């Protein structure tokens, strides 16, 4: 409708056109070009806006979904974002939002029952915040997903999957039939997908149980989730008698999030490597080898604990367990610690940050820890972080850690009897500087000249800390000189060769000014860093949004160029047609003055004031001595092709 009005207005205000003057749609041509450019520009604008909203903001909530969620609310949420204490929960980092589900939480220091919950909280990492006032947000409480603790929240880039967990012991809640629940992040909806799952033909056990207190990890780029160890008892399995002893596990459960297929890995070197039953340890994914490796740390049973001077390593591509001795003084054995991985820009080292946990011996007198350690791989050397003089969080266990760029976010944790509340219970460890900080800083990537680039906004890049460089060599961007385990590896170990191999999900490409490494982290994010050969070199890092936006802009520019070329081609054809009409009109004018014959192209190009070498009336053609140029006709067609009538 707007276009029609513009055209009509152009026709009404144009001067009268003589019947012998060629009708030249000047305004229509200009309006058409303007509309074409507008149509190309709008997708660019909305494409960038849409991408930015997906990568930098929480998913939009549509009205229908919000109303549905409100109707499913079970009860008031006294232990949500404002809990006095939170521990044994499940958490997952998806893009730049941490999701926190269930666990136990107290609304006040004197609460000693009803601590189990199915609260779902979010913690945004898109803006700066102080550790004393993090942007925790409680989402509506739906029916369906059980109130469990010490399970795991698998995730890919679109969904969360709740597996396992303990049911309440005060008051006692009987476990329900095994189920696995999926949370669609974009829709904000939970659904029970148990009927849609199956068990692979090569699974060691065809029966999948709800385990608890095991060690879980997600590998979003492979759409796989893993759960190692844990136990079964009357608070996890339906129909299990309290008179039946707890059963500890040493199997590795794999879940394919694309196919909804379970696989129970109960052999593959478990006996040969002497992998013990355990619960309350941690499992880390390290991008080493073709598919990556899993590293199991800590944990134990009622009688024994896994020492940390020997760790268990699982090769995903070979589905095989091996053991690896570590070097350096190791942390004291413990259960319920937290750990997260940060990789050097060039992939030459992968550093596991390990914090807290507790010792359960003697019984009922457990001691929580507040020490911090780094296990650097492939050296497999333990390095204790000196945190004296820093603002170290109170000792804790049952907390979770999420690595975001160069920051490790510590969430919740049981802090013993001496501290009644630990609210909000969120802490930040600077992995690059190996120090505790007062809050979170949402970094913006810098270009080589140091200017801020909003398009490349992302987490602060990770740099290898000096205490690790002192052990393995290299610099803040990698270049580790220690490329093999310090202690002799098992002959079947995936790290025995000292070569990281061709990991499918990591791209490292050389550049004249250094090395650019694109690392796909265990949380699904993609970090790009530039190594300039030294700590003082320039570097840049960005999220996966940078190449996507580049593709959008590049495609848009190409589309504009193609459209402009088509417009110019059409204009040139129109120009040749009008030029031919001009020649024919000039020939008719010459003929009416007593001259015969058509005006030749050479005649128009002569700059002599004659028509084909014959004297003519200068009023016959306004631009008689010079052929009108293509650009002149395009920019001012009415002036360039004006014919004066007689």
Automatic annotation (TrEMBL):
Chain intervals for the UniProt region annotation (Disordered): 482-507, 522-541, 590-611
Gene3D superfamilies: Kelch-type beta propeller
Any Pfam family matching the protein: Kelch_KLHDC2_KLHL20_DRC7
KW Repeat (keyword) present: yes
The entry's keywords: Iron, Membrane, Repeat, Transmembrane, Transmembrane helix
Residues passing through the membrane, by range: 28-50, 548-575
GO biological process: glucosinolate metabolic process
InterPro entries named in the record: Gal_Oxase/kelch_b-propeller, Kelch-typ_b-propeller
Keyword Transferase part of the UniProt annotation: no
Signal sequence segment: none
Name recorded for this polypeptide: Galactose oxidase
Lineage: Eukaryota, Fungi, Dikarya, Ascomycota, Pezizomycotina
